[in-house]
Amino acid sequence: MFTGEKVRLRAYRKEDLDKALQFINDPEVRRFLAPGIPFPMTVADEEKFLSKQSAFNTDAYSFAIETLEGEYIGGCGINNIDWKNSVAVVGIFIGNKDYWGKGYGTDAMRVLLRFIFEQMNINKVKLFVYDFNKRAIRCYEKCGFKVEGVLRQEIYRDGEYHDQLVMGILRSEWFGAENRR
């Protein structure tokens, strides 16, 4: 487990399944996550996701996010790793809306970045975020991410096309930042 000021990152457990399914199928949560058709995930889909989680995986690593009191509230992870160029792509979600806008996502992202830079020796971390996800963009900026590009009208959501931002942070920026806790 990897601990921050408000959260800890840990392996997913079978007992997370029901809450994870509830979180991922919440239309408000899902709106910010998946670029495809917002069709509900099934129990089989979540079970398949959980069964793929392994410490022996070298392409992706997923963590459950829980409060320091032990409540499972979301997930984050490294979705893709380019070992040759030392670049990782990350993602995060807080599924329990009671914890939105209260710093839990920012703390989880900082813990994830610390893991990536200090344990994996990655040089650059990047992510993709929809331009309408203002709360997430603020979180990423607080963690030191910078906008590196805009994919214009990349996502169709709620009857409109929206831009997708590409954001990144370099290892040297992370180790030079005061937010590295």
UniProtKB/TrEMBL annotation:
Superkingdom: Bacteria
Keywords: Transferase
Transferase in keyword set: yes
Keyword Ribonucleoprotein: no
PROSITE patterns xref list: GNAT (PS51186)
Any GO MF annotation of the entry: acyltransferase activity, transferring groups other than amino-acyl groups
Domain N-acetyltransferase span(s) in chain numbering: 7-172
InterPro entries according to UniProt: Acyl_CoA_acyltransferase (IPR016181), GNAT_dom (IPR000182)
Pfam families to which the protein is assigned, alphabetical: Acetyltransf_3
SUPFAM superfamilies on file: Acyl-CoA N-acyltransferases (Nat)
Full protein name: RimJ/RimL family protein N-acetyltransferase
